[in-house]
Design a protein that fits this description.
Blueprint: H1 10-15, E1 18-24, H2 31-40, H3 50-56, H4 65-69, H5 71-78, H6 82-97, E2 101-108, H7 120-139, H8 142-145, E3 153-161, H9 170-178, H10 184-206, E4 210-216, H11 228-236, E5 240-245, H12 251-259, E6 265-268, H13 286-299, E7 303-306, H14 308-314, H15 326-331, E8 336-338, H16 350-360, H17 365-377, H18 385-407
Parallel strand pairs: 1-2, 2-3, 3-4, 4-5, 5-6, 6-7, 7-8
Helix pairs in contact: 6-7, 7-10, 10-11, 17-18
């Protein structure tokens, strides 16, 4: 068998078992659902039609990150009731199941949804209820019960924010009210620590599969170290960590994530190799700094959650997908997995992301398989280690069955 790249069809990739380790609930609503929820909760949208919203808000291309984030004003506003959160989570689970995504880690910032009608506990439980209902429906199907297809599994990741304003939510406004004489920079980590404590308590008391803790938001000027106490807390309670880093800031942000916050995975990591993006004047040999950082990440198998379409949309300076940093990540043998980030805002699916990656970067069959399977291996799977090993084995067996049906034989290890 020749060691060459294939041309992959979307149909083939759609059949493969897949994971999505980086997908935001509030960025992944169905457009029709957003319109309905907005109408019910009297949220004013720029348009009442799907075509109008695609033209004015949810575009294929954005001018910058600020324009990309506009849509979240409307999706978050529409997710302010338990029923809305449960519905959004349920539909997101089925959108994944329908394209062969068998494991998903849904992340969101619960504090954006806390209001006078729902506390943190209710918010998280509502999301879990939607995901759990979809899982039950899928896993009671005959093809899953008979072992023909692996079951659908999920985990929940709670997101803390690097910074926020009073207008973000009633919860954040109340924090400013309680701490009127405290600088905003000191209020941010208070919210993160409170979320960390809630995540541990709700996981332990309610049995909700909260598998990860995240830090999201603007990187420049809002360093990871400010939130170290929250990440130390979840670390001591065995909740794994992923951090948005290197999405719109330089390598130092990634360094902070893996040192100050002990990140197990990195969200985006796009600027890992951008030597020109280093701003710390104490770093004299910038080339060595980046080289050593990449080597450390590779050696420790700190997985990077790559979001191709999202990166292209929020970084207009990227001339074309061929110039995406994934090429360097792959060459450096980094552990990577492809994710959607936001299915609605980026108008994408896991199948689309993998199809783009496989054909743009001419991934060989073995390379594509390794990347997909590593998404399962580096997941924050909610079960025991042995349960995770058994699940991954079933995924590999299912993958090889589809590969054999499509190509006639599986790609041997090199």
């Amino acid at each position: 068998m020749t060691d060459r790249a294939e041309t992959y069809t979307k149909s083939f990739i759609e059949q493969l078992p897949k994971s999505d380790l980086h997908v935001h609930l509030d960025g992944s609503l169905r457009l029709g659902t957003l319109i309905e929820l907005a109408r019910e909760q009297k949220v004013k949208l720029p348009s009442s039609t799907q075509a109008g919203l695609k033209e004015k808000v949810f575009k294929r291309q954005y001018k910058n990150l600020e324009e990309y984030l506009v849509g979240f004003r409307y999706t978050v506003a529409a997710l302010q009731t338990p029923e809305a959160l449960e519905r959004a989570a349920y539909e997101l689970a089925w959108d994944n199941i329908d394209e062969g995504v068998l494991y998903v880690e849904v992340r969101f910032a619960p504090q954006l949804h806390v209001n006078s009608d729902q506390d943190m506990d209710r918010v998280i439980q509502s999301v879990n209820a939607g995901l759990s209902r979809a899982k039950l429906e899928q896993n009671t199907l005959q093809e899953v019960r008979s072992g023909v297809k692996p079951p659908f599994e999920y985990g929940i990741i709670c997101c803390a924010l690097r910074q926020f304003g009073r207008h973000y939510s009633p919860y954040y406004a109340s924090l400013y009210d309680v701490h009127p004489y405290t600088p905003a920079k000191e209020v941010y980590p208070i919210a993160s620590l409170e979320l960390a404590k809630a995540a541990v308590e709700i996981r332990n008391r309610r049995g909700v599969p909260i598998v990860g803790f995240d830090l999201a938001g603007e990187e420049a000027g809002y360093p990871a170290e400010d939130h170290q106490q929250a990440f130390d807390y979840v670390h001591r309670h065995f909740i794994k960590k992923t951090v948005h880093a290197g999405e719109a800031f330089g390598p130092e942000s990634i360094f902070q994530a893996i040192t100050d916050l002990k990140a197990d995975r990195i969200g985006h990591g796009y600027y890992l190799f951008q030597i020109g993006a280093i701003t710390d004047g104490h770093i004299q040999d910038k080339h060595r700094y980046v080289r050593d950082l990449a080597e450390y990440i590779a050696d420790r198998r700190i997985t990077i959650e790559v979001c191709l379409t999202s990166n292209m949309q929020t970084n207009p300076r990227i001339a074309s997908l061929e110039h995406h940093a994934f090429r360097k990540m792959h060459k450096a043998n980094l552990s990577t997995t492809f994710c959607t980030d936001n299915r609605l805002v980026s108008d994408t699916t896991v199948t689309k992301e993998l199809h783009l990656a496989a054909n743009t970067f001419e991934l060989k069959r073995r390379e594509l398989k390794d990347i997909i399977i590593y998404g399962f291996k580096r997941s924050f799977f909610p079960g025991t280690y042995m349960e995770k090993r058994s699940y991954v084995r079933r995924i590999i067996d299912h993958y090889e069955l589809i590969e054999r049906e499509h190509f006639g034989q599986i790609e041997p290890k090199q």
